[in-house]
Write a structure and sequence with these properties.
single chain, 198 residues, four-stranded antiparallel beta sheet, disordered N terminus
Length: 198
């Protein structure tokens, strides 16, 4: 069973080739639980709309227990780390301490910068993130769309060509190759891929 991804914004579920439910994780999980109790053998699969990864919900227990499991974690636990015990000292500002390994000349340069090493490193990271923002968003969209397509459309004609068009940034080719796919799957793949063509 897959580990539940943190920070899921929305989820889209499919019953075979048809869109089944879309929305907040708790809403979709409850819809999947209700559908699982009904007769039928149509596979129900849910996907994280941000990453394109399949999501496996723990549907055991009552509806309230399912919703509670999917509630956003508090006090830093949403980063996959346990909440830190509050104690004396500086207030928690969302800072995470990690080890950084640099050469002596790097440490020397950082020590000479106004504000010290931490401030300088934060500024360098923020500048790099800002410079790469468009490329990162396109890369994230490509990966999300491709994960979804591989899971739901990997055996369909045109998948490989659509994936090549996606990574090449060729929107027109991607739309043309994906046109024959089942409408709900095609439309969702296109929605995930759209930022890649920005």
């Amino acid at each position: 069973m897959r580990r539940m991804e943190q920070n899921i914004i929305t989820v889209t579920a499919f019953a075979g080739d048809r869109l089944f439910a879309s929305g907040q994780p708790a809403e979709v999980a409850l819809a999947l639980k209700a559908a699982a109790a009904m007769p039928g053998d149509v596979p129900l699969l849910a996907f994280n709309d941000r990453s394109g990864r399949q999501v496996d919900f723990d549907l055991s227990g009552t509806d309230a227990e399912i919703v509670a499991r999917l509630a956003p974690a508090q006090d830093g636990a949403d980063h996959g780390e346990p909440a830190a015990r509050r104690g004396a000292g500086r207030p928690k500002l969302g800072v995470v301490a990690r080890e950084v390994t640099l050469l002596p000349r790097h440490w020397q340069w950082l020590a000479e910068q106004p504000g010290g090493a931490s401030v300088t490193l934060r500024k360098l990271v923020d500048a790099a993130r800002a410079a790469d923002a468009g490329k990162a968003a396109a890369r994230t969209a490509q990966q999300a769309a491709d994960r979804f397509m591989a899971a739901m459309l990997g055996n369909r004609p045109g998948y490989e060509e659509a994936a090549r068009a996606l990574y090449a940034g060729n929107r027109d080719r991607f739309l043309a190759v994906s046109e024959p796919w089942p409408a709900d799957l095609r439309d969702h793949a296109r929605r995930l891929a759209e930022p890649a063509f920005g």
